[in-house]
Design brief:
Largest sheet: 7 strands, antiparallel
Structural class: alpha+beta
Strand order of the largest sheet: 2-1-5-4-3-6-7
Distance between the termini: 66 Å
Number of domains: 3
Number of strands: 22
Strand content: 15-25%
Shape: globular
Length: 581
């Protein structure tokens, strides 16, 4: 029988695990080489117990919350008898190793203490390139995984302390920027070694049986808190449908349908009716579907719940085999991130019915992913960025501007870093006026980036969305604005690109690429927005006077003392709008 762990002891050990997981994240940030890892923060870290179950995750990417679960379950089940002290595992393949997509490389270290596995230090990072048919390895046009880059099953990068140099050689030979990729993988290795050291120091402060009991109690505690919160959600079946705009120049909507069933203290997330898998690189393997479903539900629960695997016990995820959310091999999945974000948005739409006072309107739809790759001075370069945008308005406040999606605690790469590291000039980076979805609480504003190529030539790929199906509003709020991709805007050679580019676009020196993200949807009737807040938006350039009149029925006057509200005209506009509705 496990010894009893007091609440005080549980809090101490839980906080210690969280601190170590965060320390691993900081090490990767400080020692990685690529901007996609160092600046965009597209990676995650976690500590696991002896059975590979997540005890704590670093404060990085929530969409990786569930990905460690499947990956570690598979590793432990497959290689349990071969694990030795000093091992370090490397893998990325979603079908052979329960990974997410090929650019995400896992580096995992078993933690042996006294000849016995007591835990695991785990990391996953999105590599700048993993080979395949396009620079950056995020090919939307891929039709099977063999086109997407280097596939790594479960391999020992270090075997009982002895480094496997052949794997390093194979990795370097298959990627376009080996210095960046090798450097980032080494940063992950360094983080795992620190995780092992700090885990062992913590273990040494406890009697072994009590330490193991504390690990088990973290999972049980997370489960108890989760069940208690689910029990407060009204029982029922909550359905929602969302879409990805479609692929290439002739896009056809790709539907996502979720049925969220709440019964007592359990939730079932059922994706039956969602699109079949597609012949493109946006299929989401089952580990990623688990992660997206868990992360969406986690976002409406108390932050006091540990990010431990026990949290997932009351949640069942159903995804039909052969669907875009559970593809069969060898379906392509290199750009599967857009599908994960859309799943999260879909679950949030269902949760808004169950918890109308706690869920915001739809946001910009997660990161968009422009990739520009070519050669400069005889050397290859690949710029990859996960650009983040806006949240929708909520029952309590306006949508936030320039923030990460719920599923990805990531960051936009600083302009100075882009211009210092790549042959690109960022000619514009800012907000788009009149873009936030009108509502009592306005949606966050759209962001635009404008790049000019300074190299002789390059290729462009883009993973974006939400043009035909813009971010939805809630409680009478209106949709946000849609996304836009344009090469050489305002010139004779202007070309509007699709949201999901299936064929790389050639660029020449001096070409300009304008990328606009979707904004956030509004919450509540725009005509009920406080006119003083509308005036403040106009003063700050968020809304034009024309937009104030059109979207909020607020008349803005301009006089010698500046802008003000024309109270009589506003009352007439709102009365007219109310009568018309």
């Amino acid at each position: 029988m496990n010894p009893r762990i007091s609440p005080f002891e549980l809090e101490v050990v839980k906080s210690a695990f969280e601190t170590i997981a965060d320390e691993l994240a900081i090490i990767i940030m400080r020692t990685s080489c690529s901007s996609i890892v160092r600046d965009a923060i597209d990676y995650s870290t976690a500590l696991c117990d002896a059975g590979g179950r997540t005890l704590a995750q670093g404060a990085t990417t929530p969409l990786h919350l569930g990905s460690f679960h499947d990956a570690m379950r598979n590793l432990v089940a497959t290689l349990a008898d071969t694990v030795a002290p000093g091992d370090i595992f490397i893998f990325n393949d979603p079908y052979l190793a329960a990974g997410q997509h090929l650019p995400d490389i896992y580096i995992v270290r078993p933690i042996f203490i006294g000849g016995r596995i007591e835990g695991w230090a785990t990391t996953v990072a999105h590599q700048n390139d993993i080979g395949g048919i396009v620079p950056g390895s995020n090919s939307i046009g891929s039709t099977e995984i063999f086109q997407e880059g280097l596939r790594l099953p479960l391999l020992k990068l270090v075997d009982a302390g002895r480094e496997n140099t052949a794997i390093w050689d194979i990795l370097a030979a298959n990627v376009r920027v080996p210095d960046k990729v090798i450097g980032d993988v080494k940063a992950q290795v360094a983080a795992c070694l620190v995780g092992e050291r700090e885990f062992a120091k913590l273990f040494a402060r406890w009697e072994p049986a009590r330490f193991r009991a504390a690990c088990a109690e973290i999972h049980d505690y997370a489960e108890r808190l989760t069940r208690a919160e689910i029990a407060d959600i009204p029982d029922g079946v909550y359905r929602f449908e969302n879409h990805i705009d479609g692929l290439g120049d002739d896009p056809r909507p790709i539907p996502f349908r979720v049925a969220l069933t709440v019964r007592a203290d359990e939730i079932t997330v059922d994706w039956t009716g969602t699109s079949p898998e597609v012949r493109a690189g946006i299929n989401a393997p089952m580990p990623f579907t688990h992660a997206a479903s868990y992360a969406a539900i986690r976002s409406v629960l108390s932050p006091d719940i540990p990010n431990a695997q026990g949290f997932t016990r009351p949640i069942q995820v159903i995804a039909p085999a052969g669907s875009i959310v559970n593809p069969r091999p060898p379906a392509a999945c290199g750009a599967r991130g857009i599908t994960g974000f859309r799943m999260m948005d879909c679950v949030m739409g269902a949760l808004a019915q169950a918890l109308p006072g706690r869920v915001p309107a739809d946001g910009s739809g997660g990161s968009t992913l422009p990739t520009i790759g070519g050669r400069q001075d005889g050397k290859p370069f690949i710029f990859v960025e996960t650009i983040m945008g806006a949240w929708g308005g909520s029952p309590a406040q306006d949508g936030q501007d320039a923030v990460a999606h719920l599923g990805a605690n990531q960051s936009n790469v600083p302009v100075e870093t882009i211009e210092a590291d790549y042959p690109l000039r960022v000619e514009s980076y800012g907000f788009v006026t009149d873009s936030g979805g009108p509502g009592r609480h306005r949606g966050g504003m759209a962001i635009e980036r404008v790049f000019r190529l300074l190299a002789d030539e390059a290729t462009l790929t883009v993973r974006s969305d939400k043009r035909r199906f813009p971010p939805f509003g809630l409680a009478g709020g209106r949709p946000g604005s849609g996304s836009l991709n344009v090469v050489n805007p305002g010139t004779a050679s202007e070309r509007v690109l699709p949201v999901l580019i299936t064929e790389p676009v050639p660029l020449r020196r001096g070409d300009v690429f304008r990328h606009v993200l979707a904004s956030g949807g509004g919450w509540g009737d725009p005509r009920s927005r406080d006119p003083d807040l509308v005036l403040e938006d106009v003063r700050l350039g968020r809304v034009t006077p024309e937009g104030a009149r059109r979207d909020y029925a607020v008349a803005i006057a301009s006089g010698a003392e500046g802008l003000s509200i024309d109270a009589a005209a506003t009352a007439a506009l709102r009365a007219s709008a109310g009568a018309a509705s």
